[in-house]
Design a protein that fits this description.
The chain is α+β, with helices and mostly antiparallel strands. It is built from six helices and nine strands; from the N terminus they run ββαβααβαβαββββα. Strand 8 and strand 9 form a beta hairpin. The radius of gyration is 14 Å and the shape is globular.
């Protein structure tokens, strides 16, 4: 079960699609972040969901929230995925240790070896402002993002 609002988000360091290491505590020091866990790059529902986020980046920018996708895919897979789809936001690789961050956030599906679809809005104090999730075969509704962002406006 995904970490609930009010809890402290575990700190982590992961590599982005360009191989640069990013640390959550450093990211939130600059402003709130939306962590978007997704099962797999290049899969149908994931691609559709992330394209919808790409096409609505202004909603996040207006709220001064940095959008970050996270999956168990390798850095190389995420690089190819972001280039193919024209994503202009950060993707982090939770490849190794396999799904370690997803496990800390309560969104790892052990029997499938992937993260479920979960989103956490995290404030500058590393407190979870809002969180929501769906099962792997069920896309998130964009309205859920808008509701979460409205809580910080």
């Amino acid at each position: 079960m995904v970490i609930a609002a009010g809890a402290e988000a575990p700190d982590f360091t992961l590599s982005d699609q360009n191989g640069e290491e990013l640390t959550l505590s450093e990211l939130v020091a600059e402003g709130p972040v939306a962590l978007v866990f997704f099962p797999l790059a290049f899969s149908g529902i994931c691609t559709d969901e992330l394209c919808e986020l790409r096409d609505n980046l202004s909603v996040f920018a207006d709220s001064k929230v940095r959008l970050i996708g996270i999956s168990i895919d390798s850095v190389y897979t995420l690089k190819a995925f972001t280039e193919k789809e024209g994503y202009d936001f950060t993707f982090l690789s939770d490849f190794w240790p396999h799904g370690a961050v997803a496990k800390e956030y309560g969104v790892f599906i052990e029997e499938a070896g992937i993260a479920t679809r979960a989103t956490l809005l995290i404030g500058q104090d590393r407190k979870v402002i809002a969180s929501f999730e769906t099962s792997p075969g069920e896309p998130r509704d964009f309205a859920a993002y808008q509701e979460a962002l409205a809580t910080i406006a």
